[in-house]
Write a structure and sequence with these properties.
globular, binds magnesium ion, disordered N terminus, binds SN-glycerol-3-phosphate, alpha/beta
Length: 262
């Protein structure tokens, strides 16, 4: 059956070396400091997680609760934008980052634009907020004409991707799975997704070849050991999502791969 992938003239999706939660080895994950650090390391792409506060404000945060990454406890669903001023997302990482805020999506997109970065925006639905989350993301992207070319939206919550797709017909989308499930091609086609993102430990060379044969971009997360995915790279892998981009960018073989067009 002929692939429908790429039938829309979409512009570029994600790059090859993507900084996971920003440069999260050297700076607190999912903060503006981590995104600046990624740019400083030479990464052209960052990945970050978007969650909703209880008042519907989209913020950059991985978990449903604040405790792992900030000086606060409690659930994001019980917080509102007015609470952000008192929440420190840097101090648990180190004193040098004391006072680093939980960024809003708006502030993050402004920084991405200013730094000339591109992004893999991962939508994190922690409850039944799939539609609200997609709506908030779509609204933020709609205000930025560059976002269609420079933001690749992904999610494990495929309902969230469906809602996003309904609002943003031309936005590049990536489907997230841990491992490729039966029926994956139907899901990719239904979402008109350009990409699939998988756990690097669960991707077999045959599956990679099949995905690439359909013209689908394939990235793996979260890989901090280049040697473990060199075979996948040689098998046509599109990109890696890593906590520490220099692991890849400072090696000649990977740097050459990173400079290749997709
Ligand atoms: O988007 C790739 C990766 O970030 C998915 O897993 O849990 O780190 O958001 P997680
Ligand atoms: Mg993520």
């Amino acid at each position: 059956m002929e692939s429908t992938i790429g039938r829309a003239p979409r512009t570029a999706t994600a790059g090859r070396v993507v900084a996971h939660r920003g440069a999260s080895r050297v700076a607190p994950e999912n903060t503006l400091a981590a995104f600046r650090a990624a740019a400083g390391q030479g990464a052209e792409w960052i990945e970050f997680d978007v969650s909703l506060l209880g008042d519907g404000t989209p913020v950059i945060h991985h978990d449903a609760g604040f405790e792992r990454c900030t000086n606060r406890t409690g659930r994001l669903a019980h917080a509102s934008a007015g609470d952000l001023a008192g929440i420190d997302a840097g101090v648990r990482f180190g004193d040098a980052y004391r006072g680093e805020p939980v960024p809003t999506l708006a502030a993050t997109l402004d920084l991405i634009e200013a730094l000339g970065l591109s992004a893999n925006l991962e939508m994190k639905a922690h409850g039944d907020e799939e539609e609200a989350l997609a709506g908030a993301v779509a609204e933020a992207l709609a205000r930025r004409p560059w976002a269609e070319a420079r933001v690749l939206v992904s999610s494990f919550a495929h309902a969230t991707l469906r809602h996003l797709r309904a609002r943003r017909p031309r936005q590049p989308v990536a489907v997230l799975w841990e491992r490729l499930p039966a029926g994956w091609l139907e899901t990719v086609r239904a979402l008109d997704a350009a990409s699939v993102h998988l756990d690097w430990r669960r991707l077999r060379p045959g599956a990679l070849a099949e995905l690439r044969g359909h013209g689908i971009e394939v990235r793996v997360y979260t890989i901090n050991d280049p040697g473990r995915v060199a075979g996948l790279r040689d098998g046509g892998l599109t990109g890696v999502i890593t906590d520490h981009p220099p692991l890849f960018l400072e090696r000649a073989d990977w740097a050459a791969w990173a400079a290749e067009p997709r």
